[in-house]
Amino acid sequence: MQATQAQPNVAPVSFPRLDMLRSERNLVGVHIASALIALTVGIFMGPFQAFHRAPAFVNTFLGQIPVFSYYYQAVTVHGVMLALFFTTLFIVGFSYYVTQRSLQRQIKGIQFAWVAYALMLIGLAMLVFTLANDVTRSAVLYTFYPPLIAPAIFYLGLVLLVVGSWIAAFLVFWTYNAWRKEHPGERVPLAVFAILVNYLMWFISSLAVAIEVLFMLLPASLGWIQTTDPQLARVLFWFFGHPLVYFWLIPAYVSWYTMLPKQAGGRLFSDPLARVAFVMLLLFSIPVGVHHLYADPGVSQVAKFVHAFLTFTVAVPSFMTAFNIGASLEIASRNNGGRGFWGFIFKQRWSDPVVAAQLVGMLLFLAGGVTGLMNASAQINITLHNTSWVPGHFHTTLGGGVTMTFFGILYWLLPLLRGRALFSKKAALGQAFTWLVGMALFGFTMGEAGLNGAPRRADLANSPYMTPEASLWLNGAAIGGMILFISVVLLFVNIIGTLFFSTRPVEGDAPIQTKVEAASPAILERWRLWIAIVVVLCAIAWGPVIVEALDLTNGFNAIPYTPSGAPLR
Amino acid sequence: MHIDRYERYWLIAVAATLGAFFAALVATLVVFGVSLPSPVGRVNPQNLEASEFAEPGVRYIGGNRYQAHIVARMWQFDAGPEAGAPPKIRVPAGSEVNFFVTSKDIIHGFYIQNHTINLEVIPGQVSQATVKFNRPGVYQIVCNHYCGTGHAVMYGEIIVE
After folding, report:
1. Is residue B31 within 8 angstroms of chain A, CB to CB?
2. Is the complex ipTM higher than 0.90?
3. For residues A414 and A418, what is the distance between their CA atoms, to the nearest angstrom?
4. How close A34 comes to chain B (CA, Å)?
5. Nearest chain A Cα to B3, which residue?
6. Greatest distance between any 2 Cα atoms in chain A
7. Dmax of chain B from CA atoms?
8. What is the pLDDT of residues A33-79, one digit of tens each?
9. What is the C-alpha separation between A492 and A428, in angstroms, rounded?
């Protein structure tokens, strides 16, 4: 009895350094490959939209290039494929890799991981099908606010994506639990700590959007209910919508905190404070979503200012990250020979695409952080809300910090998956720096266009309300789009080159940390406590907002419409 | 838990800065009275005829004050027959206009370029904001919330004379 009890269920696996176990390569590989399919479908829509909004481009080329129609379909494809599918599939795959490697064990219930993957893949296929097949009706954008109602398959595909990600989350929790039982008193590696935070936050917040989709949108699409409540739908969506951006960001932070310091030639400045930052993200990323609803008529001003305050609070962990990563990069730079007060800033491994891509992401993310604080400032937001300032902002966060970090990860993960070196370092560096220039230009010009009265998400090149200033800036955004298009081509040179044409053996390893000193307080791993605080904070911050929006006698009276202007039925 | 001295300074500076930002927002609200849209009531979008939006339009209510009831629908703002389509709302300089906006079908936006009004217009809800027009000129009303195929041509004008 004694002997069998002492035996762990699954023996720790010793993972090869520059190779992968077969199960690992298959599981991580299919997620990354599927993420890249979603990326391919979505990313080419980006420059196309920028061209379509630029008066100079439209008036020169319209009618000559056949794809210059279907603008709103392009916006929907771009948002759904990049913000929902590329991110989620990439994050799930990356999280499996990091969890298995850090804990030195296989993911628990790996057969369920394949079920989860199948669900997400079917979801992806359903969305691609409906977006291609039902051009007008499915153009409800990736925020899918009712009373615009898409075909049911649109919502079913998203349900499958979310359910798949939930299963992936629970497999990571299960694996962590098994590890925890065998390692009492130890601290879990920081990367896994952050992934646990990310999945907890994701699961709690996506319950709200699941309620919105399952009880309002899907039944309305199928004709089971005749009306929806659009204000309540927006409340439920943004309960989920802001944690969603942290769901994208935290895996990038995992790379910055646990991989970049070594890749850059140094070490992490402070492990315990990184954990504090992640716990703060868990606590404060959900009770802030009303800052997306500042202009909404059905949310009280008190709630708006409570959420504004909490939004400034959730900025703190990002400022902590700025210090911690900045200090880690300084250590790296001093090791690399950086001298003087400012010298360390430039003495980085700019010639290593894995490092350069992440540094580019950080530079863009700085702009995103500053503009984010402006957006959070309630009254200032009123002058920016729904203008092209907003996509200008989030293309420097999601399209900058997150995406470039994911590409940086791709530049070492893809070679490991394929077992061959990265095809071209030069192309990768070119990709990173053209992305920096293109996205900086795009973000800046979109912001300026917004300040000059250009709305977001509008096919507005020849709109009656276009001002000369807005036209000028939108033409600038199209130039940004062109530079980004070049960057995307360079990205695909490496994806295709590494997969099919690279002959050299793989060189770089992923710097995965498997052991930590117990320097951080044990309380940081008391998940039940943090979940309880999240629930209390959400009840305080969201309870009154939901109660105010939910009116069963006078609410629920908006009938569904399609984007072509007709009632659905 | 060890916290580096410089990191402590940094955190104090961050907290102070963010605190000052939030204090500025509260001061803007309390001292200068710049408020955000707040709930003023619900309507039934399927039966606007029975509500204050039965006859959209701009009414003079004394002093320099006007009241405007506007119904947004795909893809027009209806500000009454006098304003026409797309609407041209005429008010003298120095007017204070109290806008009430709602939607007959789906979500729209009510945003005036180069001004301080930006409302989500949601079916079932009444959006309200009071704006003062001091300088003469043409102010364009833009629907800035995606509302389907004709979204980019949904607009109006406020002509301040």
Report:
1. no
2. yes
3. 6
4. 30
5. A273
6. 82
7. 71
8. 999 999 999 998 998 899 989 999 888 886 676 665 689 999 999 99
9. 10
